[in-house]
């Protein structure tokens, strides 16, 4: 009986050898295929349990997104000390729903997989320290952001404020209201995360997770007259060029459709400068038509309007002029209505460009990448956004003077003596029944006029607290001035 | 592995005063201590990597583990002193690693439960309890069965019990026999048991006894067909019974793994008893035919085969390859060196602490660790096989061989399934998987193996000490006489 027993013994040996060979095949030969399969969540979870880098502001190094140790398998919880205020910038970082904002755009640096962190990762491996992600330093100035955010939420406005450094394109503030608390999505309690998600994505809700500053486009209304004026100046007009003072004009090609000035008033002055100072619609409608679609579009393009692939590094929705194929369309588009749509960021770029002598700087949120030990790895240098200046330095100076006059005629609180602001307001009709829908209130400005340090754009959706009576001056201007004051007003 | 004096022949035919055969119990104790050391390290690693505070649970698990195997060791020392010294340490290490992994998966599941707010009861304490109960049974078997040959007296009873136990879940209503879709259980209120695990051993005893008593019949040749001697039709009886039983399990309990396991064991025992390969050929032929029929008849068999061929493509199907794919993801992520104990995500595989515990170990210990565990099983089974070779009675040989093969066969079925070598079928991984029935049955198996190995290595008892029977002086070897040291050594007083 021993012979067959020995043979069974050999068979047992063969069976285990077969298992060993197959296990080697699975764990050695095919290991990478299985490891990197999209349905294998382990790699993802591994990343989630690494110490993620911080998102910090330029000013004071204030932490906008940090980590706290957690007593669960993920080891760290993402925390947002001022969640709702910075949510449009930081975005959220959720185990279930992924990430948005800077969290998504700079994910490779933050999670430590960026090639620039490779050397440090290797040294961490050698020294046995847990790998950590790099930090991202933003261009944000918390004092400006806070002023803008409080001004918007103080009155419960829906809308956005964007502030830029006109010389560098650095985004100093980016507010979108209503906002949300990304901490609710970052918690590891999946039940809470899911209920928060359901609430924040509710179709009938206020879309708090929509970043209105860069992901939403609005009709810019009269703030677009800056583009029309710039185009006119570039094409031979001057501040004293005479323009129509008519209270209303008939749209070419129509029998009874009028385009009228605000409150049906004739324009108080007859020059281009007066027309901008008093925001006379008829003058700009005619001006746009005289310029023609090509010249208007060229200047708009040089302001950055129509650029499809802008990212700050979050992707920015493209602004655009729409169809300009007839005089009637040019009339309406020249005053920022019809199909003209700008993001609040683009609207801020209008002022910033004038402030920067006609050159549009590429807006940028990331100032520097820092290694886990906070030593700089890479700093971003300012770049121009478009190839050509939107207008010459001389014309920019002219337009600045016109904007100073506009500011003088603009009501609303927050004016401070000793600070010269150059601005333009806008009151944009929208909706299906535009005369019965409260308009969007706009304000775009830069200051100080002689040494611009900040350019802002404010939009308050649908009239804010004034309803149908809202204007850019009465609703949006005070918010813009508060933002400017926080940046330059000795505070 | 070196055991110069392990050969029982030496004691039996020695013409000289029998040398004191080393029992190697010291070796066993040392190896047990080594196993305990490895398990303790594994435990500490889990705790460290899971960032658990050092709690008393470590102490209790450690103390329970040490206690259990100290008692087992003492029992072996007392009741089976010549037993193979490697078997118990192998079992201790496997059982310990199983406990560590079950505890580790508990931690992960507790966290999941905490997040979803569901109640959670850990499995590790239950498994410790089962280990203690298993040990009690182990002791009982070791004490009650002082000679494995006495089992032949109860062979037919055990055979009947085995058949009844095996078929009971199939006959009983679902409410009494189904847990998580597997109709292989007997439920008594809060307590449930898988009778198939015990039937396996009972039937092996029956088959060993039956085959030994009838083995002459099987060696009689039947007709020659094409130059091959076929067995006589009436001798096909046992193999037909086994085939029918397997088919029954397959049809009524949908338990492919157990069917495969039984068929393999019966075939091997038949082959060992008759020493004729033709039985294996006939058996495999029948299995192939049965498999083809089953594949065409049953949807779940087809699904299993589809999942086996490409688990990634049936990933999202209900009853599809999700589980196997997750297991493979885990194994792949572990790679060569593993993620480290407590640092992987073994809980992502469904049934990680039962059927897929080898996937969990493979993920955290890597190819290296999983290979070590497979080799540990091989070592265990080979020591059993060695005992079967050495034992003097045919029943012991057949039973020992069957028990040893059963370990490897079960390992092959489950690990082969997990690693996509063969279609996945649910059987437990001996000593590693969570679950009481499997542990109880496998400890009985080990007790029987120890008993057989004890018989194999035990020197022939000088039952009738007749010194006259010593070899004539002319044929006697010269013997080195130990010099008496103090109180006298083994050779004292004998002299020349």
Automatic annotation (TrEMBL), chain A:
The keyword Transferase applies. One of its GO terms (molecular function) is peptidoglycan L,D-transpeptidase activity. One of its GO terms (biological process) is cell wall organization. Residues 52-136 form the Penicillin binding protein A dimerisation domain. GO terms for cellular component: plasma membrane. It comes from Amycolatopsis cihanbeyliensis. Pfam families: PBP_dimer_2 (PF21922), Transpeptidase (PF00905). Residues 159-483 form the Penicillin-binding protein transpeptidase domain. This is Peptidoglycan glycosyltransferase. InterPro entries: Beta-lactam/transpept, Beta-lactam/transpept-like, PBP_dimer_sf, PBPA_dimer, PCN-bd_Tpept. PANTHER family: PENICILLIN-BINDING PROTEIN 4B (PTHR30627:SF24), PEPTIDOGLYCAN D,D-TRANSPEPTIDASE (PTHR30627). The keyword Oxidoreductase does not apply. Keywords: Transferase.
From TrEMBL, chain B:
GO terms for molecular function: lipid-linked peptidoglycan transporter activity. It comes from Amycolatopsis cihanbeyliensis. Residues 1-22, 459-496 are annotated as: Disordered. GO terms for cellular component: cell division site; plasma membrane. It is a multi-pass membrane protein. Residues 486-496 have a biased composition (Gly residues). This is Cell elongation-specific peptidoglycan biosynthesis regulator RodA. Its main location: membrane. Keywords: Cell shape, Membrane, Transmembrane, Transmembrane helix. Residues 459-472 have a biased composition (Low complexity). GO terms for biological process: cell division; regulation of cell shape. It is found in: Membrane. InterPro entries: FtsW/RodA. The chain crosses the membrane at residues 29-46, 58-76, 88-107, 127-145, 154-172, 192-212, 233-250, 256-273, 278-298, 365-382, 394-419, 431-450.
């Amino acid at each position: 009986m021993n012979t067959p027993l020995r043979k069974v013994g050999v068979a047992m040996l063969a069976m285990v050898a077969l298992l060993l060979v197959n296990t080697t095949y699975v764990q050695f030969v095919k290991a990478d295929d299985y490891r990197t399969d999209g349905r294998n969540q382990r790699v993802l979870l591994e990343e989630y349990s690494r110490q993620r880098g911080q998102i910090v502001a330029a000013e004071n190094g204030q932490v906008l997104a940090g980590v706290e140790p957690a007593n669960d398998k993920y080891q760290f919880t993402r925390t947002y000390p001022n969640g709702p205020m910075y949510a449009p910038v930081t975005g959220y970082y959720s185990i279930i729903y992924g990430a948005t904002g800077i969290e998504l755009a700079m994910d490779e640096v933050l999670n430590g997989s960026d090639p620039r962190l490779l050397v440090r990762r290797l040294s961490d491996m050698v020294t046995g320290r847990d790998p950590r992600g790099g930090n991202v330093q933003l261009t944000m100035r918390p004092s400006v952001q806070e002023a803008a955010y409080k001004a918007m939420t103080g009155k419960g406005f829906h809308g956005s404020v964007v502030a830029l450094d006109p010389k560098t394109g650095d985004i100093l503030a980016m507010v979108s209201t209503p906002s949300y608390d990304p901490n609710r999505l970052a918690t590891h309690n999946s039940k809470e995360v899911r209920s928060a998600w359901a609430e924040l994505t509710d179709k009938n809700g206020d879309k708090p997770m929509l970043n209105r500053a860069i992901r939403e486009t609005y009709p810019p209304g009269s703030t677009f007259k800056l583009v029309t004026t710039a185009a006119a100046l570039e094409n031979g007009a001057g501040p004293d060029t005479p323009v129509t003072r008519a209270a209303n004009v008939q749209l070419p090609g129509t029998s009874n459709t009028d385009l009228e000035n605000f409150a049906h008033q004739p324009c108080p002055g007859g020059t281009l400068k007066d027309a901008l100072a008093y925001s006379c619609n008829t003058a700009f409608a005619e001006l746009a038509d005289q310029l023609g679609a090509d010249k208007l579009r060229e200047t708009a393009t040089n302001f950055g309007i129509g650029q499809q692939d802008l990212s700050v590094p979050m992707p920015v929705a493209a602004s655009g002029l729409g169809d300009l194929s007839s005089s009637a369309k040019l009339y309406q588009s020249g005053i920022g209505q019809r199909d003209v749509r700008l993001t609040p960021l683009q609207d801020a770029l209008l002022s910033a460009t004038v402030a920067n002598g006609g050159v549009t700087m590429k807006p940028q949120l990331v100032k520097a990448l820092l290694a886990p030990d906070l030593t700089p790895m890479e700093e971003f240098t300012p770049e121009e956004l478009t190839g050509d200046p939107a207008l010459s330095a001389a014309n920019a100076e002219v337009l600045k003077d016109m904007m100073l006059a506009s500011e003088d005629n603009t009501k609303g609180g927050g004016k401070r003596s000793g600070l010269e602001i150059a601005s333009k307001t806008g009151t944009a009709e929208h909706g299906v029944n535009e005369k019965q829908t409260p308009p969007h209130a706009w304000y775009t400005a830069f200051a100080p006029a002689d040494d611009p340090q900040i350019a802002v754009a404010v939009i308050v959706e649908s009239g804010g607290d004034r309803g149908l009576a809202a204007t850019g001056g009465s609703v949006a201007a005070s918010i813009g001035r508060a933002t400017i004051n926080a940046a330059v007003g000795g505070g | 592995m070196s055991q110069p004096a392990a050969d029982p022949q030496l004691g039996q035919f020695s013409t000289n005063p029998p040398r004191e055969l080393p029992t190697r119990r010291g070796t066993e104790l040392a190896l047990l201590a080594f196993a305990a050391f490895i398990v303790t390290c594994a435990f500490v690693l889990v705790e460290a990597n899971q960032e658990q505070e050092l709690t008393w649970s470590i102490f209790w698990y450690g103390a329970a583990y040490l206690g259990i195997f100290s008692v087992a060791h003492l029992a072996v020392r007392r009741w089976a002193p010549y037993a193979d010294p490697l078997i118990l340490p192998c079992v201790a290490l496997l059982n310990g690693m199983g406990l560590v992994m079950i505890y580790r998966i508990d931690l992960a599941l507790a966290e999941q439960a905490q997040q979803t707010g569901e109640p959670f009861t850990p499995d590790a304490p239950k498994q410790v309890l089962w280990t203690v109960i298993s040990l009690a049974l182990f002791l009982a078997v070791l004490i009650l069965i002082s000679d494995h040959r006495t089992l032949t007296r109860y062979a037919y009873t055990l055979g009947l019990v085995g058949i009844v136990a095996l078929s009971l879940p199939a006959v009983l209503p679902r409410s009494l026999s189904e847990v998580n879709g597997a109709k292989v259980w007997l439920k008594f209120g809060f307590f449930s048991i898988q009778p198939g695990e015990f039937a396996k051993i009972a039937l092996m005893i029956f088959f060993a006894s039956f085959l030994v008593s009838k083995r002459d019949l099987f060696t009689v040749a039947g007709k020659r067909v094409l130059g091959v001697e076929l067995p006589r039709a009436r001798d096909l009886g046992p193999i037909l019974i086994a085939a029918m039983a397997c088919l029954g399990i397959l049809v009524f309990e949908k338990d492919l793994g157990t069917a495969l396991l039984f068929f393999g064991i019966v075939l091997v025992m038949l082959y060992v008893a008759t020493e004729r390969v033709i039985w294996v050929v006939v058996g495999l032929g029948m299995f192939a035919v049965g498999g083809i029929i089953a594949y065409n008849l049953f949807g779940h068999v087809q699904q299993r085969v589809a999942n086996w061929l490409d688990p990634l493509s049936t990933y999202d199907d209900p009853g599809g390859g999700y589980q196997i794919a997750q297991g493979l993801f885990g194994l792949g992520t572990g790679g060569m060196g593993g993620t480290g104990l407590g640092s992987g995500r073994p809980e992502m595989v469904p049934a990680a602490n039962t059927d897929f515990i080898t996937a969990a170990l493979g993920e955290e210990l890597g190819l290296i660790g999983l290979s070590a565990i497979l080799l540990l099983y091989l070592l265990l089974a080979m020591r059993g096989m060695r005992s079967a070779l050495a034992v003097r009675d045919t029943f012991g040989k057949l039973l020992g061989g069957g028990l040893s093969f059963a370990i490897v066969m079960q390992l092959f079925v489950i690990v082969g399934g997990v690693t996509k070598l063969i279609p996945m079928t649910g059987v437990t991984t001996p000593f590693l998987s969570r679950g009481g029935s499997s542990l109880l049955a496998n400890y009985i198996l080990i007790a029987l193996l120890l008993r057989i190995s004890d018989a194999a290595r035990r020197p022939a008892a000088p039952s009738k000490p007749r010194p006259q029977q010593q070899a004539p002086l002319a044929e006697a070897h010269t013997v080195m006489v130990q010099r008496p040291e103090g109180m006298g050594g083994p050779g004292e007083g004998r002299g020349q």
